[in-house]
Amino acid sequence: MKVFISGNIAPVGLKELEENNISVTQWKENRQITPEELIEACKDQDALISVGPNKITTEFLKACSHLKVIALHSVGYDNVDVPAAKALNIPIGNTPGVLSAATADTAFLLMLAVSRKAFYSHKKIIKGEWKNYEPSPELGIEVNGKTLGIFGLGKIGLEMAKKCIGAYNMSVIYHNRSRNEEAEKEIGARYVSFEELLAQSDVLSIHTALTPETKDKFTLDVFKQMKPNSIFINTARGGIHNEKDLIKALEEKIIWGAGLDVTNPEPMDKDNPLLLMENVAVLPHIGSATEETRAAMAQIIVKNILAGLKGEKLPFEV
Ligand code: DGY
């Protein structure tokens, strides 16, 4: 059996594939594979491990309908035309659960980095601008005891909420399509309308999937409903906020700051104005990039691949 991997997975995954006599071909270039190259690469393969934002479109699926399984190296599957895959009987696997803690760590890190202008201050040292002790440099704000708003209280949102309660005794409010009563009981989170979430959050952290409903959800009009001293955090998908509107909201001090691990497009252009702003911290989509999480993801991927190749139900199917 043959598998094409459109990027890198943790060594433990490669080892397990080898132990199962699966021959692996990997995309090794330091750029995203193009749709045409992906079709070509999958021509004589039995399965695909899709790493990164490859678009698994109807066109790709029709051209590669011989694939027995596609295993995503992600929990998110907004890049996949799932109905088309179902129609063609190609099971799609993802990696839920194992990356919640690491992704929530990234949201927490961004919240603190923004609130204390950490990335901006770091850049000042690099530029040789640390000349003297400054008691009042560009001052940060504290999050202790403030209100955390979660947009999308699933596994990752819950982890973020727990960290913020434990570390800073923050009150948690959330908005979902439907209530998460288990989480309400577990951490005392309060369900609010979307409008209330905007009006009351000191830190608003996005943990929802990118869907037609959440695409471009955070526009200038929405930012205008947030507190002027609020911090916007997005570790979910860049398509959920409108980047031009976010830049405007920050420039016009409609909101106080923003921390992003996801941008639109990705990669972000190095001349993007967000990168020069004091109250902004941007990371290159490293939300779940830890040794432990990548290893756990690779092991789930192999389970999905092995099941798919045998024609069995995937243990983690979207
Ligand atoms: C995920 O798992 O969805 C991460 O964002 C990596 O793409």
TrEMBL record:
Residues 3-318 form the D-isomer specific 2-hydroxyacid dehydrogenase catalytic domain. Gene3D superfamilies: NAD(P)-binding Rossmann-like Domain. Keywords: NAD, Oxidoreductase. CDD domains: GDH. Coiled coil: none annotated. InterPro entries: D-isomer_2-hydroxyacid_DH (IPR050223), D-isomer_2_OHA_DH_cat_dom (IPR006139), D-isomer_DH_CS1 (IPR029752), D-isomer_DH_NAD-bd (IPR006140), NAD(P)-bd_dom_sf (IPR036291). Residues 109-287 form the D-isomer specific 2-hydroxyacid dehydrogenase NAD-binding domain. PANTHER family: 2-HYDROXYACID DEHYDROGENASE YGL185C-RELATED, 2-HYDROXYACID DEHYDROGENASE-RELATED. Belongs to the D-isomer specific 2-hydroxyacid dehydrogenase family. This is D-glycerate dehydrogenase. It comes from Pedobacter jeongneungensis. The lineage of its organism: Bacteria, Pseudomonadati, Bacteroidota, Sphingobacteriia, Sphingobacteriales.
